[in-house]
Design a protein that fits this description.
The protein has about 400 residues and is mostly helical. Helix content is about 70%, strand content about 0%. The chain contains 22 helices and no strands.
């Protein structure tokens, strides 16, 4: 009797093992073929990443992007940017670097001769997608003509939804041209480091704004190099715009004054102190570009009431450029899909003079008109109160 019980138990174990293998096989098949919807992505990201800290949270976000990009594609990756931005302030503060990740992944596909569909959502998180895409493209050895062709295709495909995208793409080319220099210490000083990239920007187009945007990408990376002690490049802390005076082409020099913003921010860590450097620039065009760049980067750290106050406390010739920089900076770092919310709030600050308010709204209305499809832009315009009609007329 005992032997029978043992035999029966072994049979049951075997049966259970067979059932488990079958169930597990079915589960693997389901998982392999299941395409998670956004709701699943949101739930996963909230439960799996939000309660982690430090590098563990960053790895979780990175892995999540890998899964979504592999299983759902680039467009879903942009949607995930918006989802995580809304869910987690820590992610929102570092959103730009994850937009870079999407650009890197997209280039991997592009390098395999797979088609990359232009997306209006590539504007999310400060157009970081284009920065990384172009860095990868140019560092991989592709000629600048390929980069230019890609930017023009972006312009054609997004003509009705985001007119700024091709210019952001040209800015990305500038990033890639300087990133193509693997070690700035070997290149030499700042002037020799930027010489070749600026020459290529000079030759890239007959359209001045495209040349300027390319140069702005070069100077943006130079400012980052200044902040990195490993590069051996040092900013002139007394005269941080000294490098800009070595640039002969006016539109490029203007781009330089604008893009020294990040290194000056790190030197001063205070907007009004930073603004004194711009106030010391004698030429209005360059001084205005300088304060525009500074206010755009300080948009991350000030309230809209502080922005309105500070802009109206600096030299009168710089007030409008200051407001414009803050407004467009807020758009750049704004919540994906609702980028203009904080900029509109800034323009409505009660401490602004009527003249300043009108100028601020004019710039935000321009940004709305070039950043969204007409239907979506119309909805935003309808919420602008006294500026509704001017906004609608701009579309």
């Amino acid at each position: 009797m005992k032997e029978k019980l043992i035999t029966f138990s072994k049979k049951n174990r075997l049966l259970i093992l067979v059932i488990l293998i079958a169930v597990f096989t079915l589960f693997l098949s389901f998982y392999k073929n299941y395409q998670p919807k956004n709701e699943t992505v949101q739930a996963f990201s909230a439960s799996a990443c939000r309660n982690l800290t430090g590098i563990y949270k960053e790895h979780c976000w990175s892995d999540l992007f890998d899964v979504v990009l592999k299983e759902q594609g680039l467009e879903a990756g942009f949607d995930l940017l918006g989802t995580l931005y809304s869910q987690d302030p820590a992610f929102a503060a570092n959103c730009h670097q994850y937009a870079h990740k999407l650009g890197e992944k997209a280039y991997s596909l592009f390098g395999e001769n797979k088609e990359i569909a232009a997306s209006a959502k590539a504007s999310y998180c400060g157009y970081g997608f284009y920065h990384a895409f172009m860095e990868k493209l140019l560092v991989s050895g592709k000629p600048i003509t390929v980069a230019k062709k890609f930017c023009y295709s972006v312009g054609q495909n997004l003509a009705s939804s985001n007119k700024l995208a091709p210019l952001a793409c040209f800015h990305g080319i500038g990033h890639g041209l300087l990133e193509d220099i693997p070690n700035p210490v070997i290149v030499g000083n700042d002037k020799t480091t930027i010489a070749k990239p600026l020459t290529l920007c000079n030759e890239i187009s007959s359209v001045e704004e495209e040349v300027s945007r390319c140069a702005s990408g070069v100077f943006n990376v130079l400012a980052i190099y200044y902040a990195n002690p490993k590069t051996g490049l040092k900013i002139n802390s007394v005269d941080p715009y000294a490098i800009c005076r070595t640039v002969s082409r006016e539109s490029m020099a203007t781009a330089c004054y604008d893009q020294m913003n990040t290194i000056i921010m790190s030197i001063t860590n205070d907007f009004l102190k930073a603004a004194t450097f711009a106030e010391n620039v004698s030429e209005d065009q360059f001084a205005q570009a300088a304060v525009h760049g500074l206010s755009s980067v300080f948009a991350k750290s000030l309230t809209t009431s502080e922005m309105a106050r500070d802009c109206q406390s600096i030299q009168s010739r710089l007030v409008n450029s200051c407001l414009e920089g803050f407004a467009l900076g807020l758009v750049e770092i704004g919540k994906p899909g609702a980028e203009h919310t904080e900029a509109i709030k800034l323009c409505g600050e009660v401490s602004l003079t009527q003249e300043a308010r009108d100028y601020c709204f004019a710039k935000v209305i321009w940004s709305i008109s070039v950043s969204y499809p007409q239907e979506e832009a119309s909805k935003i315009c309808n919420g602008l109160g006294d500026y509704k009609n001017k906004c609608l007329e701009s579309l």
